Amino acid sequence: MANRYVFRLSEDNFSVVVIDELGPINTWSTDPENVCLIFESGIVDATGNKFTCHTGPPNNATVVTLHGAIWDSEVDDSGDATIELGDGCTPSQRWTLIEKQ
User: Fold this and answer.
1) Distances in whole angstroms, Cα of residue 84 to Cα of each of 1, 24, 52, 72, 79
2) pLDDT tens digits for range 24-75
3) CA nearest 76: which of 4, 5, 19, 20?
4) Is pLDDT of 1 > 70?
5) Above 70 in pLDDT, residue 16?
6) Going by C-beta distance under 8 Å and a sequence separation of 6 or more, which residues neighbour residue 87?
7) Which residues of 10-33 are buried (b: 16+ CB within 10 A; e: fewer)?
8) Rounded Cα distance, 29 and 74, in Å
9) Are 21 and 2 in contact (CB under 8 A)?
């Protein structure tokens, strides 16, 4: 069964939902949809002590990075977030893990 992580971003009133699919490909999406990100879902690269949420193939362009987020993160953990592909988003934010299932 997949694990679901909900990261609340501090400035733009939306969450990034990361799904650990327990396999080689993990996914992300926004809640609610139609926020200031240019892409609203894609693939997660969970290497290097961060979650890099990108568009997936063919470009794998980074959309948002949750610095310090790891699979062992617990509710109320927080860290810096960087928005790379946004339209009106605040580029530097804080994330807080608000839900883990």
Assistant:
1) 31, 24, 10, 24, 16
2) 899 999 998 778 999 999 999 999 999 999 999 888 999 999 999 999 999 9
3) 5
4) no
5) yes
6) 36, 37, 38
7) eebebbbbbbbeeeeebbbebeee
8) 19
9) yes
